[in-house]
Amino acid sequence: MSTAIGRDLARAIQAELAAEVQALRAQGYPPPGLAVVLVGDDPASLVYVRNKSRACNQVGIVSSVHHLPRTTTEAEVVARLAHLGADASVHGILVQLPLPAHIDETKVIEALSPDKDVDGFHPLNVARLFTRQPFLVPSTPAGIVEFLHRQHIAIAGKQAVIISASRIVGKPLALMLLNEGAAVTVCHIYTRDLAAITREADLLVSAAGKVKLVTADMVKPGSVVVDVGINFHEGKTVGDVDAAAVAPRVALLTPVPGGVGPVTVAMLLRNTLLAYKHQLGLLSRPDG
Ligand code: GUN
């Protein structure tokens, strides 16, 4: 297996998106625009934001980073979002999480224009996914599903186990896999005997952020394991899975780095283009 299987997939998706942007521009449409709001100087967030901006440039999306000081108030962030919501050159808005502790993430997310919410975190977009009418859906779970589709890994009828109940990964992924016909179990910090549950998984997804959380005795032989953990450990970026021990037992283990991560960025770009087409009246329905 390639150690950068996700990078190759992301490159292919980004080439498709770039071709679409180019065709729209040739017809006289304006460039798609993504605004990224970053509050403070969390080192991981700075890296993620830089990666997202670089990827935007590669497909012809104009990105702007609104880097606000850590001391910015919730009201100031909300005011910035209102301004961006009214800016016709901005089609997608993303607030990089986590926010500093004095800012209520839920209030900020609710202040986003749902039509520009390219993270799919606004309650209206959550509800659209819940009711099987997805429009803008969160990038990380979308990246996982896209990865499985492009690897021709069937989801319907599978027993899926997700280690994460977060707004960013676990909860939306549970809905997406459920909508695709999987039986889904969501595990979290209060789950007793995690290994007994994960051993039943045909498809195991870990996004807990804990080094070597998933060990060889916790996986079903021949299963598919998707590692979405990003941990900085002994000077290296590693996932949640003890890769050396687990890889020989399973049909597929996605690597970290170079696995689902790059596909996630491609999904953000795809969402930005979807929001853009919706705002320009190029879609007949919100979900295309
Ligand atoms: N921080 C970690 N993952 C994400 C994500 O998908 N979106 C945003 N906005 N912040 C994040």
Write the layout of secondary structure elements.
Elements: H1 5-26, E1 33-39, H2 43-59, E2 62-68, H3 74-86, E3 92-95, H4 105-110, H5 123-130, H6 139-150, E4 159-163, H7 170-179, E5 183-187, H8 194-198, E6 203-206, E7 224-227, E8 231-233, E9 236-238, H9 243-246, E10 252-253, H10 260-279
Helix pairs in contact: 1-10, 2-10, 6-7, 6-10
Give a written overview of the molecule.
The chain has 288 residues and is α/β, with parallel strands linked by helices. The chain folds into two domains: 22-115, Leucine Dehydrogenase, chain A, domain 1 (Rossmann fold), CATH 3.40.50.10860; 139-262, Rossmann fold (3-Layer(aba) Sandwich), CATH 3.40.50. It is built from ten helices and ten strands. The chain has helices at 5-26, 43-59, 74-86, 105-110, 123-130, 139-150, 170-179, 194-198, 243-246, 260-279, and strands at residues 33-39, 62-68, 92-95, 159-163, 183-187, 203-206, 224-227, 231-233, 236-238, 252-253. It has a five-stranded parallel sheet. A three-stranded parallel sheet has the order 2-1-3, with helices on both faces. Strand 4, helix 7 (170-179) and strand 5 (183-187) form a beta-alpha-beta unit. The longest helix has 22 residues, at 5-26. It is globular, with a radius of gyration of 19 Å. The chain starts with a helix and ends in a 9-residue tail after the last helix. Guanine (GUN) is lined by residues 94-97, 119, 139-140, 168.
